[in-house]
Amino acid sequence: MIIKRVTCKGICSRHKADRPIVGGGQRYALEQKRCQVCEIFIYFPGVYCPCCGQRLRMRPRLGRDRAKLFALQGQTQT
Ligand SMILES: [Zn+2]
Ligand SMILES: [Zn+2]
Question: Ligand 1 centroid vs 42 CA: distance in angstroms?
Fold first, then answer.
């Protein structure tokens, strides 16, 4: 049995998110995602880390929550 190890290969440094353009604390708003394995903020459109393959962490936004709410309402109505 092969255990897939999730490790940082150093690729993430290429996608490393520099200091936010807008004031501090806006990293998530700028599509910057956090990889817990690489312990880095990267600027990447995908859901998984291009480096280690770990799922990237995004801060849920109000707009998305609202969309989810609408979806739930649609389900209950049917
Ligand atoms: Zn990495
Ligand atoms: Zn990673």
Answer: 9
pLDDT band at 65 (very low <50, low <70, confident <90, very high): low
What is the spatial distance between Cα 41 and Cα 19, in angstroms, rounded to a whole number? 10
63: CA distance to ligand 1 center in Å?
A: 29
Q: What spacing in Å lies between the alpha carbon of 54 and ligand 2's midpoint?
A: 6
Burial of 28 (0-12, 13-18, 19+ CB in 10 A): middle
Kindly report, residue by residue over 39-61, the tens digit of the pLDDT: 998 888 889 999 999 999 886 65
